[in-house]
Design a protein that fits this description.
globular, 7 helices, 198 residues, Rossmann fold, single chain, alpha/beta
Amino acid sequence: MTSPKKTEQAPLSVSGKNKPLILLHVCCGPCSTHVIDLLSDTYHPIGFFYNPNLYPREEFYRRLEAAAHVSSQNRSAFWVSPFAQERWLNAVRGFETEPEGGRRCEVCIRHRLEVTAWVARQAGVQVFGTTLTISPNKKSNVINQIGDDVSKSAGIPYLVADFKKKDGFLESVQKSKDLDLYRQDYCGCCYSMRKPSR
């Protein structure tokens, strides 16, 4: 298995028609704006909306609509997994009282990346990644460590990245304003509503 560092570097030298596919876990429209733009020079990004953590159901569809709009604007593929909150609730059971940003969040991220990696392998996509590291409220080193762990167990390379660097988050904010996208004010799950993350 290629190490995460090599996984990130090797595809970056590829250009033109030979660009590898990347299945990019997309948490919402605003976070995907800058990330898709950034990756499109190196990859053929496929957005993957798998977010069973979102609550209430209406929030799932609001974020889905925004993410789909971004992919449409970028003419990139966009795959959607049905809303299946029971799977997520089972995954985080026992961690309900954890503080925001604690162990429950790590379990949540791992669950979503495991599904992303599995779908990528089944579809023959070469690499997987996530937009989550663009958020200033998320610890990129934790997300990347989880991605590395999932990569090893799933047998597919994970793209190590910290998309908030070089004003990435500010770029995403401006691009989402330009596209008039819905911007949420909490992380997404019913537990994060107790204390908004931004």
